[in-house]
Specification:
Elements (H helix, E strand, L loop, with lengths): L1 H14 L18 H10 L2 H9 L26 H16 L5 H19 L7 H21 L2 H4 L11 E2 L2 E2 H7 L1
Antiparallel strand pairs: 1-2
Length: about 180
């Protein structure tokens, strides 16, 4: 129940975190080689990515980020900012390279979930309940970027309610009805 209440409390904040929000994916001229951006998004641990980001190395990549957009960067104390940085980097550089397809979006979104879950895995032992809560919140963030991110540019749109997305196989309409 606590996770559901936390999730319900986060929905308004996340609704404003939509990757389709104005300015979210503004393309910046970039000469970032695809092999470099692929490695930074998919090939290195998040701490290595963050070190590269902190030094803007390589400088020809687009390192801009709005963190977790208008959603909380640290929902109930969980630091999702590095994962959001890498997600933004993946979207922005892939777009600038003309490679942002539905397959690329899915791959970047899947990596975002992996990054969030890796972060959540630090909560174990006596704090395992925090890990469960962390993963549930991560699922909400991932559901929103998957269900609501820049669909019109990829040629597919979702009709109806903002909440017509799945959270780990549970229809969000059921969540909406319970609220």
């Amino acid at each position: 129940m606590k996770t559901f209440v936390t999730a319900a409390a986060l929905l308004p904040a996340i609704a404003f975190a939509l990757p389709g929000a104005p300015g979210h994916l503004e393309s910046m001229e970039t000469n970032c080689p695809p092999a470099v951006s692929e490695n930074l998004v998919f090939g290195v641990p998040i701490d290595v990515f963050e070190a590269a980001r902190d030094s803007a190395d390589p400088s020809d990549c687009n390192w801009t980020s709005d963190n977790c957009s208008w959603a909380l960067d640290k929902p109930v104390g969980f630091n999702f900012t590095p994962s959001c940085h890498r997600h933004d980097f993946g979207y922005r550089n892939t777009k600038a390279q003309g490679r942002f397809t539905s397959e690329a979006k899915k791959k970047i979104d899947d990596n975002f979930k992996r990054d969030l879950y890796n972060y959540c895995s630090r909560f174990r032992g006596i704090r395992f309940h925090r890990g469960v809560e962390c993963r549930r919140i991560a699922d909400i963030y991932v559901a929103f970027v998957r269900g609501l991110g820049k669909r019109e540019e990829l040629g597919f749109m979702r009709e109806g309610s903002v909440l017509e997305i799945e959270f780990d196989g549970v229809e969000a309409d059921a969540v909406e009805a319970a609220v």
